[in-house]
Amino acid sequence: GSVDIDLFAECRAKEIGGETIVVRKTGVDSPIGRLVKALVLSKEMLFADLIEGDEIRLEYTKAAVVRGTNVTIGPGCDIGLVEYTGEFRRFSDAVVGCSKQIG
Predict the structure, then answer these.
(1) Is pLDDT of 76 > 60?
(2) Are strands 88-90 and 2-7 parallel, antiparallel or unpaired?
(3) With CB atoms 3.0 to 4.6 Å apart as the test, which of 50, 69, 85, 87 could cross-link to 15 if both were Cys?
(4) How many whole angstroms separate alpha carbon 77 and alpha carbon 1?
(5) SS3 content of the chain, % helix, strand, coil (to 5)
(6) Mean pLDDT throughout 13-22?
(7) pLDDT for residue 103 is more than 90
(8) Around Cβ 94, how many Cβ atoms within 10 Å?
(9) What is the longest distance spanned by two Cα atoms in the chain?
């Protein structure tokens, strides 16, 4: 299936898996969003140990390992290891410790 995460506050997950995984910072500035930010005082960021899927597009994510077929590491990301079998793209401000094509 698909996993679509719109970040409003800090999120944590040990593992995320699916065919298509998209994590993005929405930029929605609704009254509820502002209230949540004021009460929680956290930044909009996903923290995960492992993210695994076929099509992966990440923004504002800190993960130890990202593994997939086609992987895009977007703005605000800090990834320890990216393993991919198809295509790998990294935005210029994204931090990736190591990336390797497998298979």
Answers:
(1) yes
(2) unpaired
(3) 50
(4) 23
(5) 10, 60, 30
(6) 97
(7) no
(8) 20
(9) 47
> For 49, phi and psi rounded to 5 degrees?
-80, -45
CB 64 within 8 A of CB 78: no
More confident residue, 32 or 82: 82
Mean predicted confidence (pLDDT) in 73-100: 97
Does the pLDDT at position 41 exceed 60? Answer: no
- Is 23 within 8 Å of 59 (Cβ atoms)? yes
Q: Which residues of 75-89 are buried (b: 16+ CB within 10 A; e: fewer)?
A: ebbebeebbbeeebe
Q: How far apart are CA 65 and CA 48, in angstroms?
A: 8
Residues belonging to the chain:
103
Structure-block tokens of residue 38: 């004021």
Q: SS3 for 40? A: helix
**Average pLDDT across the chain, whole number:** 90
